[in-house]
Amino acid sequence: MHLGAHGRVIQIFGGLRGWRQVLAEGRRVLRPAGAVFVGRSVAPATGLDAQMKQHLAFILSEIDVRPDVANAREDVLRWLEAASESSARVLAATWDAERTPREFLERHRTGASFSVLPAPVKDEALSELSAWAAAKFGSLDAVRPERHVFELRVFRFREEGVPR
Asked: What pLDDT sits at residue 38?
């Protein structure tokens, strides 16, 4: 957590557990009528990574594996939206990324929720995903361009603070 010189808190949430306590502490040290900024990268909902994640979830469900996919981002944003007096979105940056199925497979093997699965389950799931991706995209090295954005959500609070 970074506390800015003007009493603002900047936190990027991901798999954070106990986020209510983090926000309550941030609000406690925030100046009256201050703001909380939440930054996040947003990939296209129909992009290669999204399609690969969706199909991997399908594969895992077919072999009756339910990985712990705790992701507090959306819960945090809903909570802040309800607790704040006002909010705004600021598009901070955009960039074009080139994604390939092979890169997704390499990155995902060590992802937080996937890496805790037993090795045979990971191997089976990634093997099935590789075969699906090669058929779907023509090759594991097929390059798919995607537009990504980094957005800041700015939440301004009432003087009386955030509900705990």
From this structure: 82
